[in-house]
Amino acid sequence: QTDVRDFDLLLKYAPEYPLVMGIRARRKDSAFKRMQSKIANSFRRMMTHDGATDTGCPLKILHTDYAKRVPFFTGMHRFLPALIQLQDGGKFYEIPVRHYPRQAGVESTGFAVQGLFCFPLDGTSIYQLPSGRE
Length: 134
Hints:
39% of the residues lie in helices and 11% in strands. By secondary structure, the chain is an alpha+beta fold. The radius of gyration is 15 Å and the shape is globular.
């Protein structure tokens, strides 16, 4: 649903930021999918206060030294901005990238609905991570 050529857009900012993420621009998703995304992103921002716009975009560049310190768990990609900020005030940058409708397969609303139930548990896990600033 994204264009691999958009990695070139992200690479420009990689030397300056430990995390560079794409933001899916001009999405052609269904109204239901857009609503789910708004709810999930709002909940994530409420829990983490990370300021990230869209963590669902798969295009991300993460510095290796930061990645080695990120705890891995199901759904962790949603929380990369917060996890980076917990590491010595690490910053991230977001840049709009192209987004295309799904070409192969059928969008599974069952998976999306399941994600709405799992998401609060993931958010609680992040909220309880130690900040290292005692």
